[in-house]
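Fold this sequence, please.
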Amino acid sequence: MSANSSDVLVNGVPVPEGCIPAWTLDEYEKNSLIGDHRPLSYRPSTFFQPVEHMGEEIIVGYLGHIYHRDKQGAEKFHHEVLRQSYVYFTDYANGKPVYVTFDQVTVHRLIQIQPRAGHPLLWYWKRVDSPKKVESNHVFMIMPFEEGPLQGFYTTNVKDFLASELSLIVLRADSVNDNDVISDTVLHLIDESAIVIADSSAANKNVFYEIGYADAKGKELILMQERCAGTIFFDKAHRRAILYDMDKPEQFREELLATVKQVHSRIVQKM
């Protein structure tokens, strides 16, 4: 990493005054760092200047990249989203999780980039806990529980189908017989499941909440939606989605199987 005359050394890394070194991470790197507890083998190419703490979990500030800084001269921080230049911009725009560590111990996830005219971008990072144990053969299904055709369609074409084809265990909140708090059960099952499938056909607030939680946790999320329902809800049009017709279950199962196979293969390779 090159240094400017105004740089200061922080843990042996030259960064602009008032900044700290920052390693940006993807999901795999984040899990490796937290799980193995080994320092990263490369020096950071980004730096961060905190400007605000929102409670104990969220930190807000400016992010800069050493190579961007070299090109821009005195402009230390990102002032605009550069999707074609840096992976963390592209991943964030595509709905992929982006993480950062400032000390190679604690990890924060990027939850928002806020543009501001004439000022650097504001980056909002939320501290994440150590990942809970994920069961590679568990799939959590998000859907409303109302009686109707969807229940039978789910049982036959999702739950039983994935069990027979891929030996996957598909769970819902009502899969657990206990006297626990339902919302806690849902969050726990989402945490421990390798894949989350969500039916967004109806404007159900509980479904939307669970989708948002799964998204915030960086889960592999597959949306399914009845074709006649119209546009995809919850502002998740960038997510992979399977549009289906209940009177064409074979077509749905074919697309579901191909999607789940691809996602599950990627998960197993990382574990």
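The helical segments are 27-36, 66-72, 87-93, 149-166, 182-192, 205-216, 249-270. The first strand starts at residue 7 and ends at 10.
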